[in-house]
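Action item from last meeting closed. Structure (299 res):
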């Protein structure tokens, strides 16, 4: 490992420790995604998911969808930090797996799309009809997969490498000083909940679910599908995210700018649609993984 690589890794660890918004939609965003997904699980998938959830979840996937963020500062889990995002070249506004998903600290494909492929494979390995011994912690695999399918839909989790997905772009959200990444992780959702949903997250979930049923009903089959019969297909999701980052997240959000109603009201529909797509696609992925396979649930 040369000096540049060591410097890059040191910089990455420092960023992970200092910037609160680097690793997720925020607890509320991930809760929304997984609550939507629960409503679209098949019977087989629902049984399998509940069998794998930790006892503390009490059968509720949404209650543990923020777990990968909660453990990120623990020494044992620090290696998982790079799995929450994938950086792309500045201003290219496109994503390529081979170019953008890098190895890290001796581990291969350490990015959000690589993680989605990996944890899908782990779950599939236990549900392929074989009687071989399970080599993975499937509870952790389920929680990681559920979280990372959400993360890849947050546009700035596929942002530019030069500003670390908007983390180094300091802005004001109305009067509050923050960074652009944190705006997309948390603040748009928090402002929407307060402004439009009586500070009740369940009202926001109900509204998004209604839009899925009515407004986006013609798109659901397209959202759910993967090309070539794949079980999971995060690369198109990442391509969508960087495209949206360029069109909406970065636009009119220069360092030092103040983001107010114009930005909020024009970006909220993008955020809510990405939450909806995340939930539908997570459910579709879990449905494919657990289709007619209930070996673990029966044990």
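Sequence:
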């Amino acid at each position: 490992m040369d000096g540049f690589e060591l410097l890059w890794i040191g910089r990455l660890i420092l960023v992970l420790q200092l910037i609160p918004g680097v690793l997720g939609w925020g607890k509320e965003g991930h809760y929304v995604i997984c609550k939507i997904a629960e409503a679209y699980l098949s019977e087989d998938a629902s049984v399998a998911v509940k069998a794998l959830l930790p006892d503390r979840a009490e059968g509720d996937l949404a209650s543990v969808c923020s777990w990968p963020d909660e453990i990120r500062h623990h020494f044992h889990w620090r290696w998982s930090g790079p799995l929450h995002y994938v950086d792309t070249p500045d201003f290219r506004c496109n994503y390529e797996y081979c170019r953008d998903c890098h190895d890290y600290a001796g581990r291969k494909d350490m990015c959000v799309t690589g993680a989605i492929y990996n944890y899908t494979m782990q779950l599939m390995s236990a549900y392929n009809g074989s009687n071989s011994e399970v080599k993975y912690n499937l509870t952790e695999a389920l929680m990681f997969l559920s979280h990372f399918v959400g993360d890849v839909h947050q546009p700035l989790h596929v942002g530019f490498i030069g500003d670390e997905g908007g983390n180094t772009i300091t802005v004001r959200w109305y009067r509050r000083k923050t960074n652009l990444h944190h705006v997309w992780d948390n603040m748009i959702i928090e402002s929407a909940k307060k402004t439009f949903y009586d500070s009740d997250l369940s009202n926001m979930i109900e509204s998004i679910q209604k839009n899925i049923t009515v407004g986006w009903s013609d798109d659901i089959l397209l959202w759910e599908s993967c090309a070539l019969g794949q079980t999971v297909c995060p690369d198109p999701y990442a391509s969508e995210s960087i495209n949206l980052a360029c069109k909406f997240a970065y636009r009119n959000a220069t360092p030092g700018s103040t983001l107010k109603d114009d930005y909020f009201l024009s970006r909220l529909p993008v955020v809510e649609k990405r939450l909806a797509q995340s939930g539908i696609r997570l459910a579709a992925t879990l449905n494919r993984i657990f289709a007619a396979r209930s070996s673990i649930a029966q044990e």
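Note appended to the action item: Residues 26 and 186 are 5 Å apart (CA to CA).
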